[in-house]
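HTH CENPB-type domain-containing protein
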Amino acid sequence: MVVIGNKRNKKARNRLPQKKRRQWNVREKLMIVHYFENNNRNVRGTAKKFNIQPKQLRDWSNKKGILLTTASHVAKLHSGKPAKYPKLEDDLFVWISEKRANGNAITQKIITNKAISLSKSPEFLANNLGIAGFKFSSKWLDGFLGRYDLSERRRKW
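Structure:
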């Protein structure tokens, strides 16, 4: 008895799946916009050549001035959501810097507790009416650590 296997095309079987989303840095965006401007401003043709959506190309073309002033390795032009209480975060950052300079270990729980205690001080309550009900969640903490380029440091033995 002879068994005949699946006769699919070998090339189709060996192909890797193409990534669905891709993040373009500023240098690549500017190269695509330059190609677009030098080839009769054909949006659909340029988008198809670089496997992007025409809307992406139009957006990049409209933001060309901002792209030219941004560092070439940057992928996102928008830095993220700004801090709701920047004065509190500045004071908290100064406190963390002092503690770290003294060699004290600072955990995420300690940072959150210090933020809560700072928010209960009379000067913050007077200037920021909604701070009493603010929840210093883990998402807030992640955003704070990212905005100030902090990381939780652990001892390595």
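The radius of gyration is 26 Å.
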